Amino acid sequence: MAVEAKRTLEEVEAEIAAVKAELQDVHGTETEVYARIVGYYRAVRNWNKGKRDEFNNRKLFVYEGDFTESRPSNTQALGHKKSETKPAPAAENPAETLRYEFFMRKTCPNCPPVKNYMSGVLFEGRIIDVDTDEGLKEAASKGVFSAPTVIFYDQNNNETGRGHNVEEIKAVLGLVAVVA
Length: 180
What we know:
By secondary structure, the protein is an alpha+beta fold. The chain has six helices and six strands. It has a four-stranded mixed sheet with strand order 4-3-5-6, sandwiched between helices. The chain has a two-stranded antiparallel ribbon with strand order 1-2. The protein starts with 8 loop residues before the first helix and ends in an 8-residue tail after the last helix. 16% of the residues are buried.
C-alpha cells in the first residue's frame, strides 16, 4: 500500500492559487444556435432581423395533460380494421410476451398521438419522462436520442423494435405491411 506524502497548508494554497490563475485565462467560444427557418436549418446569427425577432417571440409547445398517469387495466382493442391488421410475429398472444417503454417529453408536440395510440395496446408498458433526471439517465443508457421513442421488449427483456411515431409503431407490431 503506497503512502501519500503529506502536503503543507502553504503548498495546497499555492496549488489552489495556480488553478485559479489558470481559470482566469480560460476563453471559450461563442455557441452557435441553429433553428429551422423556411424549411431548413441555419445558424440564427445569419438570419435577417425580421426572422431573428420572430425566433425570439416563439413559444415552446407544452402538453398540459399528465404523461405519468397509469393505463387502465382493461384496455380496449386496437381499433383497426380487420383487413389492415395481422397478428404480431412474436407470439400468438402478444399481451403475454411483449412490454414497452415510452420515452416522452412534456414539450414534445409528437408525443400525445403516440401516447394515445399506446394506451390502446393490449400489453403492459410504462411511460418515462425524459425531462426528469432519472428519465434522462435511463434514456441515455438505452440510446434514446429523441422523443417520442417507444422501445418494445420480448418476454426475455430483449429489445424487439423501436418506433418514433404511430406509423413506425404499427410497423414494429406488424399491424401494417412494410414496403421495402
